Fold these 2 entries.
Entry 1:
Amino acid sequence: MKLLTRIAQHAERKPEHIAYRTEDQVLTYGMLWDKSRRLASLLHAIQLERQTPIVVYGHMATDMPVAFLSCVQAGYPYIPVDTSIPMERVRLIVEKSGAGLVINTTDSKLDFDSVAVLHMLNLELEQEELIGDEYWVHLEEVFYTIYTSGSTGNPKGVQITAANLQSFTDWMTGDFPLDEGKVFLNQAPFSFDLSVMDFYPALQSGGTIHALEKDVSNKPKLLFENLSRSALQVWTSTPSFVQMCFPNPDFNDKMLPELEVFLFCGEVLPLAVAKELKARFPKARIFNTYGPTEATVAVTSIEITEELLAKEKALPVGYPKSDMRIFVVDELDNPLPEGEKGELILAGPSVSKGYLGEPLLTENAFGMINGMNAYRTGDAGIIQDGLVYCQGRMDFQIKLHGYRMELEEIEFHLNQSDFIKAAIIIPYAPNEEIEYLIAAVVPADHDFDKEYKLTAAIRKDLALRLPAYMIPRKFSYHTSIPMTINGKADRKKMKEEVFA
Ligand code: AMP
């Protein structure tokens, strides 16, 4: 595979060049390739069946990239699982994925009934006999699987093949101004596919990944000190993250004088954010990109120029990458003419082959169009003069501060709580963006004398099953959930009650 071959070449030609760094660790190309090759040989020796997934657990330590590359060199897809994911959900992912091994890159102890855990810390990698490139994941095999929120209460694993990833990485390094050897920001944890947007393009082009661990990005003082020292050239993040930097007036081209490119993906890029960035970084180029995890990070892009900012009320998400086709269809799947609003369908070589172990979910969302894998996004949009515009969702999937989630998944877990009879989630969105979630709850009988105690108990329950970013900020208590005439929860009426 070209991507892996390139990494091997960089390791040979410039072994001392930094491939990946965090606040206190560095990993050169030489170290990355050498360590990952040895670990790949060790994984090979375990003799799992080819293509058995391996869960890689951790945050952003240098062992994470090493573990990823070792899995794929031995022919196994990896499943990145961040430490922010609650243990009950981690167990679910390990079980549901049929993982053959968990690689733990943290210093906490992990135990699973059915699967062995390999602790990377203190692992002595002997001078094993190294395996050859014939074991590398083949183009049509799965390279990684990323779990996203699912409406049935369980996360779903999106399988990305080596061919999907190669198509994406070639597009990034070919169509964007990303020359060899740039310094890329990595803001997103590896369990979100936004991290793929900087990670593999940087490695393919011999660049350096500057990873922002959550202990740094959560604390403004540390964050800005870190950025000031970063010499970043390519910024990759959600719009929410860059917006979080705006309260600091020093966040500008003096803090990041080398910054050339902003790459955004994952949620709406508000016009105001793009304008603010242009003012603070007049020399940098800004790109909006769009895509779901199911189509390997992003499939459209557009440079946000002054002319575009002057012309558009809501920014377009861009033109499809050249090997992708994007269609707009009505409820009966009939293609719609230009300018008419419908559901966006993506077809082409970066579309996944489906959800791991979920044939029904896969059948509902994926199909074939003209011999290409196709994915039904659930995004509403239009195409005008070849430009794609996203106009919200057709379902209950939302983005909150850049995180993708299904309201039904949160509702499923709320309804599991002994303290709750029924619940629905109301997103609070005073303007274009969702600011936080409110749980409208019909409580079960309980002994709490105060509402806040009940809320604390429900939160504690939820924290066992859901990542912190999916837990509603506010709780509002009611005697019943209003129903529509056809017996569905009446979300509109509920919202009116919540805000009454
Ligand atoms: P994820 O799988 O986490 O990348 O989330 C994918 C979803 O995020 C898409 O289906 C869209 O709903 C939304 N999304 C991604 N990029 C953009 C964008 N540039 N503008 C608007 N929505 C976006």
Entry 2:
Amino acid sequence: MASSLRFDGRVVLVTGAGGGLGKAYALAFAERGASVVVNDLGGDIKGDGKSSSAADKVVEEIRAKGGKAVANYDSVEAGEKLVQTALDAFGRIDIVINNAGILRDRSFARTSDADWDIIHKVHLRGSFLVTRAAWNHMKNQKFGRIIMTSSAAGIYGNFGQANYSAAKLGLVGLSNTLALEGVKYNVHCNSIAPTAGSRLTQTVMPQDLVDALKPEYVAPLVLWLCHESCQENGSLFEVGAGWIGKLRWERTLGAIIRRQNRPMTTEAVRDEWAKICDFDNATKPQTIQESTGTLYEVLSSIDSDKGLSMNPTSQQTSSSTTIDPAQAIGKKLPSTVYQYNYVQPILYALGVGMSTRDPDHLKFLFEASENFSCLPTFGVILAQAAFMGGGLASVPGLNIDFTRVLHGEQYLELYKPIPTSGEMHSEGIVADILDKGSGAVILLDVNTYCGKELICYNQFSVFVVGAGGFGGKRSSSKTKATANPPNRPPDVVASDVTSVDQAALYRLSGDWNPLHIEPSFAAMGGFERPILHGLCSFGFSARHVLKHFANNDVTKFKAIKVRFAKPVLPGQTLQTEMWKEGNRIHLQSKVKETGEIAIAGAYVDLTSTVNSLESKAAVQDTGLQSNLVFEEISRRIKDVGSELVKKVNAVFQWDITKDGKTAAQWTIDLKNGSGEVYRGNVRGRADTSFTLSDEDFMDLVLGKLNPQKAFFAGKLKVKGNIMLSQKLEVILKDYAKL
Ligand code: NAI
């Protein structure tokens, strides 16, 4: 069993610990080794009167069990005195649980000044004064844990508790800011909204519920949040009856009402009301920067007359924003030339976090090392000039604001390992343009050649914020689709800490956008500080796959696809989670510190070298050649499945025989979802079933055996809709590609 969580040497102050929840916390902390200050004024539930007996009894109980505790009888309004008791008795203060509380419930109309003030004094002001008294001690010792006690009445409102609700939600605001101010001193602050039977709830709950909802069911959360190993900070939890849940804010996408040619009017607000309140695709802003970032975007989109960015249903009215897909699609970008020697690949490798610390990185960092190689993802550097050098601006029909262009997705396919020096030229073309409502997606296909030899193909998928609504299509068969990882824990997880200068280093490979280095520019975009290039995180993720699944052998790398989901800040830790599915390694990369997914829906395809190794294993497993074909079809279908489902719309089952017996079953489903190939019997109903031997199957796909002849010769048995088998021929011919 994992070790138990202890508080030896820690000094805890629990306010209002003479009964109810506070008492449960005090006992639990003492039991786990903490020295506890048991504070309680000892008044009644309305805050009248005082007595020392409540606190004394709890101190006695702790001492009787061998624990350490002292009493304090001051009101929390005398914050300094409470903390002084801790310092006098135990010499320090580590943890403050702001728990003391009273009630003055009244309907709002009958709430007097006194009812309002006393509730605020005890709950909000009391928590402020006690916490402020402890704050500098915690900061100086670089450790502190603080709990604010909120309430469901504050979060949701409760009849007759206007005073109490206001103070209780005020505590959450206080906690949110302390969490930000304290974090760099390892001082954390969280809020809880508990439910427990106590003398406070006795008046509103039936006795059996009061008995059932034990304060002891709340205490473990409070202790965990206060443990030195818990990194939770600035959060709010509801807790009671043995259940704990976390809360957060959610915000609708909203609507931009004001436009350059339309004033902000009350009627326009009314007309957009449904949209303002529509929680579909809602966001969950976590910081004030994320929240205000939207306002910057809105201002600049209105300035540039793209006030439609958040408003997919509106029509484009601006004459300056024009995307004319008919003109732009298929247009070539000016060719670019990229000349390099060993310096650029090395600089790039450093830019994506390679280090001489790792001996197996040397072949990417030292030009004279044996097998000096270029990282496969350097392929994006060869091609990026095609659109970074203003290439897009030259395309007719694309009149867009280039400050609003975001890199959405990236696909890179290599046809041979990238030479370590050379002169490459790239040819770009606008492959397609999609209208996503809130913006436009431009698919840019770039082929890069060394002389006449095709080295790699990139698809840059760029999102132009606010440029949607031009009436274009929403999806395209040209899109290199992302793929979700399998529904199981990752097979391999690799982490790398990015350096604070990672973006400063990466930009030397040619992406000079000031967003990645200039703080004020980053602030305009709503970022706390300059962010890492998406393609830099992409490089980290790809080399994690290369190391763990291809032994850093660049010849095994075939293709990579990623979607950039969230920005990464230089200095954060990138954690790549990987799943192996045949030759495809699915991956997603998280920012370890926040748990947010930065790269999503991603995969790396490795080449036939790995393929053949695995395939040998597959053949040995069952001795069947056909397994290789089905695996290959499976891989291909992952790319073009949706397209095929539209075309074919059928489920095929295969019984492959060996020595006259069924040796394997495979299903090719091109009817459901975006298509799937799987081993085993069909899940549901097959439209057509085939039975044939492994050898005949191979002859068939290699074109040595004619299907009609095989059928008439009895080698191929077909059940169900025989006409559909013609459609299958197309798949075998076009997608098996063996
Ligand atoms: P309780 O009445 O059993 O405990 C509160 C304690 O605070 C009492 O012992 C009281 O003497 C003490 N106290 C009151 N004013 C004080 C002051 N000025 N200085 C020092 N001590 C003072 O109530 P319970 O239920 O244990 O409540 C603890 C906290 O949890 C309170 O802040 C309450 O508002 C909050 N809460 C409780 C819920 C519940 O279901 N029990 C629901 C939501 C919030």
